[in-house]
Amino acid sequence: MTKPKQSGDFLGHRFSPEIIAYAVWAYHRFPMSLRDVEDLLAARGIIVSYETIRAWVANFGSQYAKVIRRDRPKVADKWHLDEVVLPTNGKKYWLWRAVDSNGDVLDILVQSRRNKRTADRFFRKLFKTFGAPRVVVTDKLRSYGAALKDLALGIEHRSHKRLNNRSEGSHRPTRRREKCMGRFKSPRQAQQFLSVHDQIQNVFRHRRHRRHTLSAACYRQSRADAHWIWDDITRVLKAA
Description:
By secondary structure, this protein is α/β, with parallel strands linked by helices. It is about 55% helix and about 15% strand.
């Protein structure tokens, strides 16, 4: 069999960019293990080890996420922030996540503390990337208000448990991944994986969550649009 000609970031890889892209997509799109993806490819006549798939996910996942961040549409001016316990290697860490009112995950931060200093660090990270929003919605954790007060940017802060369902719902894909992967081995691993996973999920998340509000034809078109975006990123990486 003729070895496919590679280019760009895929140069030097035995398998075609389309196969690599499919493996990365399947791993991040569904709560599947590396061995599950290996079996999925094998069912299509593509024999590749789960260790090779692990390398693809580690290498190309971050590259896909980078392009998604670069080309993302302008974020909404209303943000929802929340934090949730993330057990890691037998220790208690906190996963901080910011979501805009469109449901897109903006960024995450894994830290051992749940205090004003961490809230301030997360806000500064977000503002450096996206600028300041008009409104920030959080739970009742006082650290958010204290950090925003010190930043003195005139941002409206709404603190109410029931107002923050959008951000709380964004944690569900993480919990599904935890069940599949087991606990994260380190906060660094969690930070690296979730930073990529959330961005890839952004491309496909709306198509799944809005399904009950769309006609079958509209849903299929929306799903096709998401896959077109994914394929376009693959073309960008091939040309890099």
